[in-house]
Amino acid sequence: MTDYASFNPTNVDEFVAALTDEVKVLGNKWWETNSSIVPGYLRSLAEATLQTEVALVEGKIDSSTADQVFRMQQAAFRQTMRFTKYMTLVLSQKVVDAVFRLVGWAIYNRVGFNFFPELVNIES
Amino acid sequence: MIRRVPILAIAVALTACSTNLIVPAYDARLDTAVSSAHTAAAKITACIDLGLCATAESFAEQEANYIEAIANLKTAGLIAGSLPASNDTARASREDLVSFVDGCREQLVSLAQLHLAGQTKPELGMTQSVDVSCDQALRAAQAMKQGGDDD
Questions:
Q1: Which residues of B touch A82 (CB under 8 A)?
Q2: B-contacting residues of A 32-91, CB under 8 Å?
Q3: What is the rounded CA–CA span in Å between residue A61 and residue B124?
Q4: A102 neighbors A9 (Cβ within 8 angstroms)
Q5: Of B53, B82, B99, B132, which has the fewest beta carbons less than 10 angstroms from its beta carbon?
Q6: Closest residue of chain A to B107, computed from CA coordinates
């Protein structure tokens, strides 16, 4: 992890190396946190669908109720696909933020101007 | 002075394109509303999973949780829909965010109908879609929070 307060690259290679480290750490952490979530959702929904199917076959629920429950599950499956896409965009945004946080610190440490106050917290 | 102009120009240009470029920024009001709804929804599905909400009469005991969850999700939907988004990509992902909040709310409305009809017995596959949908709404609302697990 880069020491932001003292980050003051003097050449492109130094800058790129720091950026690469930031993005790599961010990507790894994001992947560790999120990679198991979507399979968990899919397993849970698959289990639900089977339960409803068995309940219908065994006469525990009528076809009208089963229809409503299947539609709820279908909506959740569809939402899960959209969620997967959204979380990929979130990672992209986090990468952009990580890059500009570093750029912001480099500028601040060089000229004393904070152009990215939403990303560069000079209080800490 | 001559040296500062390009730096300032570049920095101002970068500032303009750095925020809300891909997804809307974190919003604490949205997080609070969805968190409250998530907690209330979890109480309802837990009650059903435990077999304590298997009758139409048991709806009355959960009515406050349904109202809290659905009311908070209505508020959250309005907040999410008005988050700043500076381009088409950000506007599209804002629509995604709204759809997760609305998805959770619609799941709860359907569950309430089943509950009022006395159909919410355990292990019939009725609670998972609610849990999944509302969990996604919460994760999406908190995804851009700084200092989170994946930040």
A1: 96, 99-100
A2: 32-34, 37, 41, 44-45, 47-53, 55, 60-61, 65, 68-69, 71-73, 75-76, 79-80, 82-83, 85-87, 89-90
A3: 8
A4: no
A5: B82
A6: A72
Contact A72 B126 (CB under 8 A): yes
Tell which residue, B114, B97, B138, B141, has the closest CA to residue B44. B114
Kindly give the confidence (pLDDT) of every residue in chain A, 124 residues in length, as a single tens digit, with 9 standing for 90 and above.
Answer: 678 888 888 888 888 888 888 888 887 877 777 777 888 999 999 999 999 999 999 999 999 999 999 999 999 999 999 999 999 899 889 888 888 889 999 999 989 989 888 888 887 6
The three-state secondary structure class of B141 is: helix
Write down the pTM of the prediction.
Answer: 0.85
Residue B20 φ/ψ region, left for φ over 0, alpha for ψ in the -120 to 50 degree band, beta for the rest: left
